[in-house]
Amino acid sequence: MNQVVLLIIIATILVSLKGFKDFSFFDTYKFQVGKILGGEKLRMLTSGFLHADWLHLGFNMYALYLFGGIVVNNLGNTSFLIIYFGSLLIASMYSLHYHKKEPYYSAIGASGAVSGIVYSAIMLYPDMELIMFPLPIPIPGYIFGVGYLLYSIYGMKKQLGNIGHSAHLGGAMGGFILTIVLFPQIVSINKTMILLLAVPIIGLLLFGSKLKK
C-alpha cells in the first residue's frame, strides 16, 4: 500500500477511536451547521476523521484502500492529497450550503473525501469493472459512477437513511473538478466517458436547489 494512503488510513482510525470513547471530543469536532456558521470552520475538515462505528469506518477505509492506489499511481502523492482533502472540503461546503437552514444538522465520516477519490479513479479508468454487493455482476466504472450520483441525488431528495448524501455528492464533484484541473489531458483521453460522468454533476449544480422539499 502507498505510504501516503496508509498514513491517512492510520490517522483516520486513531481519531475515530478517540471519538468512539470520548463524546466531548466527538461533539467538538463533528460537522454541525450551526457551529460552523458560528465560526468553527475547522469542523469542516476534522469531521472527515470521525466515524459513527466500526462498520462506517471500515467501509470508508476499505474503499480508500481500493481506489486510493489508482489515483496515487497515476497522479502522484501530491495530487492525491489535493483531491482527497479538496473533496473533503468541497463536500463539507456543499453540505453546509444545502443544510444552511438546519442549525442542528450534523455529520461525520470520510465519505466525502473517499467519494472524490473513487470518482477520480473512475475517471482515470472508466472501463474498470466493479462488483457491488449483492449483485454478482461486474459493472463498468463509468456506469457505477453515474448510478452512484443519481442514487445520491435521489437519497438527498428523499432523505433516505442516516446517510450524508449531500457530502457524497459534494465529494464526487470535488474529485471530478480537481482531477480535471490537475490532469487536464484526461478530457481528451476519455472524452466520451468524462462527458457522461459530468452530466449528473452539471444537472446538480443547475437544479440542486430544487431538491429541497
TrEMBL record:
Transmembrane segments: 62-91, 103-125, 131-154, 166-187, 193-211
UniProt-listed InterPro entries: Peptidase_S54_rhomboid_dom, Rhomboid-like_sf, Rhomboid_protease_S54
GO cellular component: membrane
BP GO terms, sorted: proteolysis
Keywords linked to the UniProt accession: Hydrolase, Membrane, Protease, Transmembrane, Transmembrane helix
Major location category of this protein: membrane
Domain Peptidase S54 rhomboid: 40-184
Pfam families reported for this sequence: Rhomboid (PF01694)
Coiled coil: none
Location in or out of the cell: Membrane
Membrane topology designation: Multi-pass membrane protein
GO MF terms, alphabetically ordered: serine-type endopeptidase activity
PANTHER family: PRESENILIN-ASSOCIATED RHOMBOID-LIKE PROTEIN, MITOCHONDRIAL, RHOMBOID PROTEASE
Family: Belongs to the peptidase S54 family.
Protein name: Rhomboid family intramembrane serine protease
Lineage: Bacteria, Pseudomonadati, Bacteroidota, Flavobacteriia, Flavobacteriales
